[in-house]
Amino acid sequence: MPNHFHHPHALQQSSYAAAAPSAYMAPNYYVSAGILGMVVGGSAALASNLHKVQDKEMTMREAFVDSLAKGAGAGVATAAATAVVSSVRLGSFGSFVLMLATATGVGYVLNSVGESVSEKALGAAKKK
Asked: What is the DSSP letter of 2?
């Protein structure tokens, strides 16, 4: 009776099978990460904005719109950071730092673009 655990080809196949899922992540994995980022980011923004609504600094509609925008940005940043980290093999700490740096960079760019668009819209509204 052959012992498959000591057979060299059996060992190679089992090692390859264990490594295969981490070598390629399905697009659904990134979408799921983005959705999670959107829910967490949007929820955190809404929690903060509800205090502003309570203090009459913004309306409930403004709070929801702002929270949706921040949630969408957090979702994009999370998906991008997940894609970058999954394409590089680092240890736990290195992956954490890379994910944090990527998400922060993407968030910074999105905020810069958002502020630029808002300023242009306000400038156009004042001219009218």
From this structure: -
